[in-house]
Every structure is written in structure tokens, then in C-alpha cells.
Design brief:
It is a single chain. The strands form two sheets. This protein has a three-stranded parallel sheet. It has a two-stranded parallel ribbon with strand order 2-3. The two termini are 18 Å apart. The longest helix has 18 residues. It has one domain: 5'-nuclease (Rossmann fold, 3-Layer(aba) Sandwich), CATH 3.40.50.1010. By secondary structure, the protein is of the alpha/beta class. Helix 5 crosses helix 6. Helix 7 links the parallel strand 4 and strand 5.
Amino acid sequence: MIFDTDVLIWIERGNSKAAKLVEAAEKRMISVQTYMELLQCAKSKAQHKIVRDFLAQSGFEILPFTENIGHRSSIYIEEYTLSSGLRAGDAIIAATAIENILPLATANQKHFRAIKDLELTIFKP
């Protein structure tokens, strides 16, 4: 399963339901987009280390940005930005899930639900 950034932020805030969702996943993956979003929110190098340590200790694999993911995400922006408010970061995360044939766990179904090929696991904090 690939996890959206919001699920990991809920864990950081102490949400036990988010932690249980991650713990229950046999394979834990995130898009490089999620990795960058997590680092971007950090306020210091020490917080960068906390993020990296958490991901490593939790067994997350960071999936790279590929040409196919870039192409697919640009198509999603054209198709869904006006109708559902899809943003570039979410398009990259969705494309990463689809290209790797993985369900996406997210609490943000508004931006993702329009994408037909995307299998969603909705998290309710």
C-alpha cells in the first residue's frame, strides 16, 4: 500500500487510527513526492532526521519519480484540476500508486476520488 502524506502527518500528531493503518500494511510505500512534502514541513535538520528515522524504522520504501509517473500525472492535471481541485503533488502521488499497482491510503478523498483507475483506501481520522 502507498500512503498519502496526510496519513503520516496524522501519525505525527499522535492519531492511533493512522498508526494502526500503517502497522497493518504488509508493504509500506510512499511516493518521493510524499517524502519531499514531509521534509518540506520540517523546521530544522533535526526534524529531517526524525522524518528519515521514522520512515526507515517503519519499513517504508520511497518510490521514485519516473517518466511514466510524470506523464500520467500531467494527464491527471489536465483532466481533473478544474473539476476536482487536483493539485500537482496529489497527481504525482496518484500516478505513483497506479504505476506501481498499489492502493492509496488517504483521508483526502476529495482530490483523488475522480481518478478512475485509482484504488483508494479511505482513512477517517
